[in-house]
Amino acid sequence: MPAARVDLLIRQLDIAWSLFEYHLKDIDDPLCLWEPAPGCWTVRPDGQGRWVADWEVPEPDPVPTVSIGWLTWHIGFWWTTTLGHCFGSGAPAREEITWPGGAAAAAGWLRGLKDDWRAGLLQLTDADLDSADRTAGLPWGQELTLVDVAGWVTVELTKNVAEIGMVCHLHGARRHESGDPSV
Questions:
Q1: What is the tens place of the pLDDT at every residue in 43-69?
Q2: pTM value?
Q3: Rg of the Cα trace of the chain?
Q4: CA-angle at 10, arms to 7 and 12, nearest 5°
Q5: Cβ neighbours of residue 28 under 8 Å, at least 6 residues apart?
């Protein structure tokens, strides 16, 4: 008997998440905020004590290099938005979705979003997956079915995790090359 589509989505999510956990154990605040290049997009405290992400509309071409802090904010932004529209009554504006202010807090925030997304997926039927009712409010993908959005979530997570891994490796290489542990 073939596996249910929800089961497949969950297995794929769990694989992508395990790759994220592989990197999370080594990410501290300095690494999270390390800027690998000039003009890097990152997260910064504003005058009100909130951590906000660099952003431009429209995005520049090419998009700037990003910090791990920015990448974790980005995962939190799209997951908060997707969860809010697909399993809630909407989502806050991008400007209201702030970074929690540290690597451990960001990891906890993202683990909670992943758990909420996973729990939402587990309650779906094939009819739910084939519907665009839950995705209609999304700022992207309003015409997509929920199964398409769920697949995108895992692909986007995998892409962001790969970027986080690359920044970790680049930081390690630069630190080794310079002999300076603060690089």
A1: 999 999 999 999 999 999 999 999 999
A2: 0.94
A3: 17
A4: 110
A5: 103
Residue 134 CB neighbours (<10 A): 20
What amino acid is encoded at 169 in this protein? H
Closest CA relative to residue 55, chosen from 46, 23, 150? 46
Q: What is the DSSP letter of 44?
A: E
Q: Are the CB atoms for 23 and 164 separated by under 8 Å?
A: yes
Q: Which residues contact 150 (CB under 8 A, 6 or more apart)?
A: 9, 121, 129
Cα end-to-end span (Å), the chain: 53
Residue 179 tokens read as 């002999």
Q: Per residue in 10-33, pLDDT tens? A: 999 999 999 999 999 999 999 999
Backbone angles phi, psi at 153, to 5 degrees: -55, -45
Partners of 52 in the beta sheet? Answer: 44
Place of tokens 């071409």: 61
